[in-house]
Design goal:
alpha+beta; 222 residues; 11-stranded antiparallel beta sheet
């Protein structure tokens, strides 16, 4: 049975957007002073964004956040690219109002260039967004994901969309949901994380569900 979702805002993860994101760790380094960073942001056609604290909006309309001051040319940076925002239904909300003011927050995401939205919808609509992104990943990387698993409660609240894992020689690429960590603590990103493999080097076997949950959490929750 489909699981209801209050609202979904999303954009398409294109091959060009993916290529730009995956190239960031090896791009020419940009110093982490504001003037140099702002110059590079503008040169790329990016903008500063406040939907996620200390984030950027890329020229493709996605929201990018990094754990450092600069995402450019920092191989050990942890970054994620958001291409979807989900407002799930909380079945444990006794009054079943679920903080309806959050529709306005989702509206702000939906207003980003190239974004659209649906309300109400279901977890299957969220999966469709991730499946499209996974096809783009598979086409550009030339291989499918090494692991595919439902998300866990340790990573996200609400429906459990699929996590897919790829690896490069140096980085983990995790496609799937992650907590927004913003207002109400309940919205969910649909995102691609790019993090150094040193966060959790050894990918657990496919039949180790708990180990895979911990590995994914180590790469997407920071």
């Amino acid at each position: 049975m489909p699981i209801p979702v209050h609202a979904l805002a999303h954009s398409t993860l294109t091959a060009d957007a993916l290529d730009e994101f995956l190239a960031l760790p090896t791009a020419p380094h940009v110093p982490d002073n504001f003037d140099a960073l702002d110059l590079e942001v503008r040169r790329r056609g990016w903008a500063w964004e406040d939907l996620v604290q200390d984030s950027f909006r890329t020229g493709y309309g996605h929201v990018l956040c990094t754990d450092g001051l600069t995402p450019f040319g920092v191989p050990d940076a942890r970054s994620f690219l958001v291409f979807g925002e989900v407002y799930p239904v909380d079945p444990e909300d006794e009054e079943m109002d679920n903080g309806t003011w959050l529709y306005g927050v989702v509206d702000d995401w939906q207003k980003l260039p190239g974004w659209s939205g649906r309300r109400p919808c279901t977890d299957q609509d969220c999966e469709a967004v991730l499946e499209q992104a996974a096809r783009t990943m598979t086409d550009r990387l030339g291989r499918g994901p090494e692991r595919t698993a439902p998300s866990s409660a340790a990573v996200v609240t609400g429906p459990a969309p699929t996590h897919r894992v790829w690896r490069t020689p140096t980085h983990a690429l995790v496609l799937g949901p992650a907590s927004d960590n913003g207002p109400y603590g309940y919205l969910t990103h649909l995102q691609l994380s790019c993090t150094p493999l040193s966060c959790a080097p050894d990918l657990p076997p496919a039949d180790d569900a708990d180990g895979l949950d911990r590995w994914i959490n180590a790469h997407v929750d920071w």
